[in-house]
Amino acid sequence: MTISPSSFPDPGFLHARREAIIIFLVWVVALLWAVPYCYLNGYNIEADQLQLIYGIPSWVFGGIVMPWLWEFHKLHHSIKELDWIGNMRFHWMEIVVYKGITYLPLVLLGVDGKVILWVAVVGTLIGHLNHSNLNIGWGPLMKIINSPRFHVWHHDVVLHGKAAGQNFGILFSLWDWIFGMAYRSEEEQPPELGFAGIERFPTRLVGRFVYPFFKRR
Fold this sequence. Notes:
The protein is mainly alpha-helical. It contains 7 helices and 2 strands; from the N terminus they run αββαααααα. Strands 1-2 form a two-stranded antiparallel ribbon. The relative contact order is 0.11.
């Protein structure tokens, strides 16, 4: 019996399906933790007391989303002086979370691999530019497009009255202005970069990689 090559499943499909299953299992685990948390902390809040961050209730954003992601993102914010290579300082778990959210839907939708490659290349180059130590703000376009002058304040130790920080946009700063998370200063850079408690953050590579899993509360 002759076996046609078309009878074998497409490797790309198998790879995408495997990633989708992993993402789904991670989502289920998160759901099993999030539902009890929401039940205990969210349903007793009056409507007039509800605060929103990026359209998400503050108790969800601050109690579920940010603490979990922030522990991994601290490695990136351990930068004391911003430069383009700082864009490559990140925890491996951020690749699993952010890249999965970014690229997995494109794969499942059948987007051409060359398009996904260009998205990755352009996104990386923009990240390098926004982390470079340059006084570039794009003038009136600052409220639409992210820039080194705008993004440096995302790395400021001071939160400037924001519940979770400021200037989160990667390519577009527009979202920060729409959701009230933008901060603009006449100063070129903050006096100090980092985060509160950075003195307790590990200095060795292995310690930084395992810190989010074993850090002391």
